[in-house]
Structure formats: structure tokens, C-alpha cells
Amino acid sequence: MTEYKNSIPMDEAFNQVFNNEEDLKEYLSYAFEQYIEDGNFNIFYRALELVIKSRDTMQGFAGKVDLSRMGLYNIIQGKKEPKITTLAKILKELGLTLKVA
User: Fold this and answer.
1) Which of 4, 8, 60, 73 is 20 to 30 A (C-alpha) from 94?
2) More confident residue, 58 or 14
3) Do the beta carbons of residue 73 and residue 59 sit within 8 Å?
4) Is 51 exposed, middle or buried (0-12, 13-18, 19+ CB in 10 A)?
5) In this predicted structure, what is the pLDDT of residue 50?
6) How far is CA 67 from CA 82, 84, 91, in A?
7) Which residues of 76-97 are buried (b: 16+ CB within 10 A; e: fewer)?
8) Domain boundaries, the chain
9) Is residue 14 within 8 Å of residue 41, measured between CB atoms?
10) Distance CA 17, CA 91 (A)
11) Which of 22, 95, 29 shows the shortest CA–CA distance to 56?
């Protein structure tokens, strides 16, 4: 793997840019709007992963929403579509809601 001078890991860069709750909410809202527009859930799933990792480990967060770590990764990686109740649990644990406007 090539190492680049002055580079930082993606998670660290994300935490520097999105360093408050309002920024995180806007980022997830934007990612969800993109899904609504183009039907590609991958952008939303990646955003969700970054927000979760900014707050906790994947395993720790998975336990809080009654999922296994692998179950949470399967959702994040798009291998499994979550039920609306599962998505609601994830958003609630993040302090967010799903809003229809």
C-alpha cells in the first residue's frame, strides 16, 4: 500500500469536517435525498457508516440497536435491506428521525 505524505485516514478526515451534530444531520439528510432521487442506497449507507463510526465502534453501536456487528455491516454494505423498524432504531440511536416532507 502506498503511503502519502500529509494524508490522514478517511474516518479522521470525516470527523474533522463534520464535527458537530448539525453537520452530521445535514450530511445524512443530503445522502438520503440522493437515494430518493436516484434510487442508489449506497451513498446513504456509506454516510450512515461514517456517522456511526464518528460516535462509536460498529460492534458497540450494533449492540445498542439489537443487531450483530455482521448484521450492521450487511446493511451498510448493501447486502441486506433493513426493515423500516431497523432503520428507525438506527436513526433513533443516532438521535435522528426519518422525516417525510
Assistant:
1) 8
2) 58
3) no
4) buried
5) 87
6) 11, 14, 13
7) beeeeebeeebbebbbeebebe
8) 10-93
9) no
10) 21
11) 95
Using one digit for the tens of pLDDT, what is the confidence trace for 7-51? 756 666 565 666 677 888 888 888 888 888 998 888 889 889 988
pLDDT, position 65: 96
Using CA atoms in the order 70, 25, 88, 50, what is the torsion angle rounded to 10 degrees? 0
For residues 44 and 31, what is the distance between their CA atoms, to the nearest angstrom?
Answer: 5
> What's the pLDDT tens digit per position in 71-101?
999 999 989 988 989 999 999 999 888 777 6
